[in-house]
Amino acid sequence: MHRAPLLALPCRSEYLQSTWEKAYQDHRKKVRDAQPLVDTHAPLFLSHFHLNLKKLKLEEDRLSVIDRDNRLLLEKVACIMRTRGQTDSRDDYTHRR
Which domain of life is it from (predicted)? Predict the structure, then answer.
């Protein structure tokens, strides 16, 4: 533990010297036992701020549209594979003048 620094010129009064030493020791104890004033804990976790229900709903809708489009493409590819990929090249369009 630190001792009170001795004065260059010793104090004539022992009472004054002991009062200063006691005050210095009290100061050192307060500095040693000081608690921080800044709160360094993590903030509270509020789930309703992090769970965006509208964003989840839009993502679900987007994925359902993608699934539907993929299913339609798969049906078209399956139809092409069943018919051996033949195309009808007839032109039934009649030209008008």
Answer: Eukaryota
